[in-house]
Amino acid sequence: MHEIYKVLSSSLHIPVALSSRSHSWVTEESLHSQKVATHYNKLQECGLAERNKSRIVHMRNFNNWLKSVLIAEILDKVKERRREVTVLDLGCGKGGDLLKWKKGRIDKLVCADIAAVSIEQCQQRYNDMRRRGHPNDRTFSAQFITADCSRELLSGKLRDPELRFDVCSCQFVCHYSFESEQQADTMLRNACERLRPGGFFIGTTPDAYEMVKRLEASDSNSFGNEVFRVSFQKKGVYPLFGCQYDFSLEGVVNVPEFLVYFPLFEEMAKKYNMRLVYKKTFKEFFEEKVKDEKNKVLMQWMQALEQYPPDERGQLASDSPGEYDHAKRIAANPAARRPLGTLSKSEWEATSIYLVYVFEKMS
Ligand SMILES: C[S@@+](CC[C@H](N)C(=O)[O-])C[C@H]1O[C@@H](n2cnc3c(N)ncnc32)[C@H](O)[C@@H]1O
Description:
This protein is of the alpha/beta class and 363 residues long. The protein has helices at 3-8, 28-42, 48-53, 57-79, 98-103, 116-132, 181-192, 208-217, 262-270, 282-289, 293-301, 325-331, 345-351, and strands spanning 86-90, 108-113, 141-146, 165-171, 195-206, 222-224, 228-232, 244-249, 252-253, 257-258, 274-281, 306-308, 340-342, 354-361. It starts with a helix and ends with a strand. It binds S-adenosylmethionine. This is mRNA cap guanine-N(7) methyltransferase.
């Protein structure tokens, strides 16, 4: 039996009447989709200078490093077998991963997102990237689709109706679709149905096990710290679909998300002939990948960790007591190579909620 299943099954309550609600445009569920689109459409594209001032800049860089490593490794694997690589970026947002696709020298990209403004910005970013590139630089071709991928099928919207993907990347997205079984299934269908045999479905999502563990340990209906907070309506009952929670980051409440119970996700993916080949928490992924010198160099280059102690002109991201005790302890050891690279305790607690997964399409 799957490890996580053993731990969680006792606390998860199997819901009744999962798909009895109607799916027309006036349901509560579709209202939620509109909220997701409105929320992401309103998010301002802030410049590099602004981003660097953020309390959680290193955590954002860390997440970006993790996606870079995951994407690079999968593309290397695909290229062992294929000369031309086609990718679906499902829930692409404003195109935060475009440079990773360029670096990975892919040939075709389809970007899809529910938020029309994000898709416009993504397309603009792609156009800028092409314009800025060296004339000999080969940039992949791209199509941009605005669609609620938990309700609409992407197949009918592709410019090339015969298109097949080698990779589908779904970064920090799937948890929005676990509002209902039907929505989660449609999202999975979009992710997997056009993958070639041997193709990969990769992504990142909050880990239900970690979330429930922290919630149960808290003496209220929420847990968090100075950078993030997760609030549930109640404890003790965790339906497989529609288990809603609010996630706020740096004090800003995000749109509601839904718990993704991973063993269920894995089971549902089997319908599309997908086999789980890799699943790690962010912590495990970091510990495994940082051993590779190339990933370590990338980590420094992306400033995915904060320097501790900071240099004379520098300042730590937080001056709250206890945020760097772990680093202080290690730095006190005369044998330790200083400066260290670290994340503040609060950022680490926030990012270590997530997990990474890789599925492979069977023939
Ligand atoms: C946290 S952002 C991640 C963006 C991007 N994948 C990244 O890693 O930078 C989540 C994205 O999922 C998109 N999204 C949420 N629900 C969606 C749905 N049902 N269909 C398509 N996109 C969706 C949001 O609009 C948003 O752009």
